[in-house]
Specification:
It contains 22 helices and two strands. By secondary structure, the chain is mostly helical. The chain has a two-stranded antiparallel ribbon with strand order 1-2.
Length: about 525
């Protein structure tokens, strides 16, 4: 690794300073502003809340939870994982306040640890973001197929589901091309849609069904359909439901160059999105689990989506269809927000010369101030990642694991480097004070544990169909990143670690505006 560079001695703006001071701070970090700063604090919170999307993650992996630990692991796992993720979010928010750039995690790692730290963090973050698009939008396609099955007897084959998935990706690409203001408005609507949707689903399931499960069933029932005998192992891998859902909150950091007062607003956005999702998600999971009528029938439902079967059994066809539409719209909001976050990561990584064809992906539309090519690249790669779902019933779980295994380590690297830097790290206006080190170490240890955990096989016996491909995906990305390092290391560098200072920055970005 390169020697740890000194953090920028430039002054950090205080909360509440005018927007032009944020633009000056961005210049001090080495970049000329080219993106439109049209997102407020609520919009910044909303994008992370929308990407976490309890109506996407909880609902999509609910069937996984039914088989892998059952109700007890889903409910208590959610509570425990949420607490640890909040620690990760708090620690990451502190570093975000000091370095509010679209590059986010990799830029922080680069500044605190050197070029190679930034390089590998960037590739892990990019893998996680692109995997998240694939997982979210494919989940929306599954729920859309389940809705069509209930309404019209549609048979959701893998091929038909893939076509729905591609249509959703196209929709999200087009919406993102209209500019960040539309993205911000949609995310703000998404917050209220999610909260109202959870209230509607839980309220309907609490009132309408004649039969409900007992509290002892909901909070203590353990189910193991994985093929593994060790209950502790099964409970551990069952945490994937919660950990997968609690990802994507770095979106607030990736949109910081488009957020007013970003040094504070982006940090608050991360933390608020996590705790709001933590509380609402627990209510949703409890409401669904109390309403299960037939556990085995729900687990093996012909709709392919266990929550849809719970709604069908408890509310009938019309009620289930209406609430499925609420879930599908929430998932569409989620996927749209994730495309925005991933495209900003592609733009920023290309701006620093890290991707093949960087000169193309960093181009910004002069009309909308949106990285158009980066948006298209994000959805195309997400489509490719989901293609194995055509051939394997376990491929979707692999995609979600790829998301977790890519993005989760990337959260901890800047936090670890901030801890290693000690007093050389100059915090921004949003910081943890004396709690910085204990919360930071809790975050790092937790991420190390779950990174190992989610590389483990999830079903036994381990075959080509049941294998967890997350570890292979992680290895492939690290190998490719290492190979590409020797090709692109001369062109890659943030403004503080390569000759990407003001002259080169101005020229390259001027060329990139189209």
């Amino acid at each position: 690794m390169s020697p740890t560079p000194e953090p920028s001695p430039a002054p950090v703006p205080a909360p509440g300073l005018p927007q032009q001071d944020e633009e000056q701070r961005l210049r001090e970090l080495g970049y000329r502003p080219v993106l439109a700063r049209r997102m407020g604090g609520f919009g910044n919170f909303a994008i992370s809340f929308s990407v976490i999307s309890i109506l996407s993650g909880c609902m999509t992996l609910y069937g996984f939870g039914l088989n892998t630990g059952g109700p007890a692991v889903m409910l208590w796992g959610w509570a425990g994982v949420g607490l640890f993720v909040l620690c990760v979010g708090l620690a990451l928010a502190e570093v975000t306040s000091a370095y509010p750039t679209s590059g986010a995690l990799y830029y922080m790692a680069d500044r605190l640890g050197g070029r190679r730290w930034g390089w590998y963090t960037g590739w892990l973050n990019l893998l996680g973001l692109l995997g998240a698009i694939a997982g979210i939008d494919y989940g929306a396609a599954l729920f859309t197929g389940a809705f069509a099955s209930i309404q019209w007897g549609f048979v959701p084959t893998p091929g038909k589901t893939m076509l729905i998935f591609c249509a959703i990706l196209l929709l999200h690409a087009v919406l993102n091309l209209f500019g960040v203001r539309l993205v911000s408005v949609l995310n703000s609507v998404s917050v209220w849609w999610h909260l109202a949707g959870v209230a509607l689903i839980v309220g309907a399931l609490a009132i309408v069904p004649d039969h409900h499960r007992s509290p002892s069933f909901v909070f203590t029932k353990f189910v193991n359909e994985t093929g593994w005998d060790n209950p502790l192992y099964v409970a551990a891998i069952g945490l994937l439901l919660a950990q997968y859902t609690f990802s994507g909150y770095d979106a607030s950091a990736h949109l910081s160059e488009e957020t007013s007062h970003a040094s504070v607003a982006a940090s608050r956005g991360i933390v608020r999105a996590i705790w709001a999702s933590w509380l609402a998600g627990f209510v949703l999971l409890a409401g669904l689990t109390f309403a299960i009528q037939d556990y085995d029938a729900t687990r093996t439902t012909g709709t392919g989506v266990p929550p849809a079967q719970i709604l069908l059994d408890g509310l009938g066809t019309d009620g289930a269809s209406a609430l499925l539409l609420v879930v599908i719209v929430a998932q569409l909001f989620c996927g749209n927000a994730e495309v925005a976050a991933a495209s900003r990561m592609v733009f920023a990584f290309s701006r620093d010369g890290a991707l093949p064809g960087s000169h193309l992906w960093r181009k910004v539309s002069s009309r909308t101030q949106t990285p158009v090519a980066a948006v298209w690249l994000s959805v195309v790669v997400a489509c490719v990642l989901a293609l194995p779902s055509l051939y394997s019933t376990t491929a979707y779980n692999a995609v979600t694991a790829i998301n977790v295994i890519g993005i989760t380590p990337a959260y901890a690297i800047p936090v670890f480097l901030r801890l290693r830097a000690g007093d050389r790290f100059r915090p921004g206006p949003w910081h943890l004070g004396r709690w910085s080190r204990p919360i930071g170490w809790i975050a790092v240890v937790w991420v190390a544990c779950v990174t190992v955990l989610f590389c483990l096989p999830q079903a036994s016996p381990v075959t080509a169909d049941t294998m967890n491909y997350a570890a292979i995906a992680l290895a492939v990305v690290l190998i490719l990143a290492s190979v590409w390092w020797y090709v692109a290391r001369r062109s890659y560098g943030t403004p503080t670690t390569a000759a990407y200072g003001s002259d080169r920055d101005q020229a390259d970005l001027a060329e990139g505006i189209v």
